[in-house]
Amino acid sequence: MEKVIVLLSGGMDSLVCAGLATRDHQNVYALHLNYGQKTSAREHISFDEICNHYKIPLEKRKIIDMTFLQQIGGSSLTDENIAVKNYKGDSTVIPDSYVPFRNSIILSLAVSWAEVVGATKLYIGANHEDSPGYPDCRPSYYEAFNKVIKEGTKAGNIEILTPVINMKKKEIVLKGKELNVPFNLSWSCYKSSAKACGQCDSCALRIRGFKEAGITDPIDYQQA
Amino acid sequence: MEKVIVLLSGGMDSLVCAGLATRDHQNVYALHLNYGQKTSAREHISFDEICNHYKIPLEKRKIIDMTFLQQIGGSSLTDENIAVKNYKGDSTVIPDSYVPFRNSIILSLAVSWAEVVGATKLYIGANHEDSPGYPDCRPSYYEAFNKVIKEGTKAGNIEILTPVINMKKKEIVLKGKELNVPFNLSWSCYKSSAKACGQCDSCALRIRGFKEAGITDPIDYQQA
């Protein structure tokens, strides 16, 4: 039975990936990376609750501590000295929440674990609209990374899948609705771990996505 | 002044890279990754001594703790339950010291740091003869990775250099001699942190390289 891994941050994009992976595969593993983001404890809870929902057993879950990224610095998500800015609607500027080359670090770790457990597919909820300024959220980046995997792994048979990469947030919400994913268990806010702030980039995109889809977001916001 | 980073494990291949980088550039940074290998404390000493030798100031050195790789497992270098085997001379088998996709994790971190400090070149002492069974030591792997960097970084201007990748160990020794690198400060053994064992894959290749080059290896061995 083919093994697949879902990179599950706990956000709605990765949740929809979990919905797709569990719909199409029976042997699903889940990987969560704690890279020292301010909301990491809250995301950890979402990870566990989503895994419980999809009946992913404990031995197929892994959380890797990547807090060493704080030693590299350069991002408001990991550096306590850089404040997370509110959303300004300018999608051409690379957000200050950017951790340089972060997705390559994440993908490399995920491929490493995939090779150990023998998984051949990796679902990742990268989304181009979500992060237009992040160079490592572009489809061409994932194509290039899949070539690195072919060259750099023993069997060359691990493939990264980015099923929501070209979707608008609205379409992701609708896809999640179709798959009946537990949106109430997901967490998107970059800024707060209690109630979602409703103001950061990630909240702003999520709120707009639900609004455009005409669906009520089941989570609570401080202000929206 | 262009900034460059040398990935400095403390072994002789990375030492020769440090010799090349400091010959050709004035603004050199050094990165060492502790990924939980059994000889990591000894390699750390070599890293510091080589940096001292090349007058790389403390603020341009970085050691990143990657011991989380032990959570992924699958290698004798990081897993205490897998013994490091002695060299058998069979270069077609992937050694048990293989950490899956390890070089991609290392390169991703190095590129991340390069983006933070503004470095545009990364020297890495990957060597094809050294590790013929490691898929991520092939030149084609590095070509593919450079494409990922172009796609996945803000400026796309960071390049990985692998100056010794196609050299025989003998040629690396001769290049080091030409550059007058401090071979006495380097550490290659996978197995021992006191005197080099002289038996593991890495010792065997080093000993043969010096022998073929007709140069005396300045470090001591338990047996050779």
Please describe what this structure looks like.
The structure is a homodimer of 224-residue chains. By secondary structure, the first copy, chain A, is of the alpha/beta class. The first copy, chain A, has a single domain (3-188), classed as 3-Layer(aba) Sandwich (Rossmann fold). In chain A, 38% of the residues lie in helices and 11% in strands. Chain A is built from 7 helices and 5 strands, in the order βαβαβααβαβαα. The first copy, chain A, has helices spanning 12-24, 40-53, 69-72, 102-117, 139-152, 169-179, 201-213, and strands at 3-7, 27-34, 61-65, 121-123, 159-161. In chain A, helix 1 crosses helix 6 (169-179) and helix 6 packs across helix 7 (201-213). The model of chain A is unreliable at 89-96 (pLDDT under 50). Chains A and B meet through strand 3, helix 3, helix 4 and helix 5 of A and strand 3, helix 3, helix 4 and helix 5 of B.
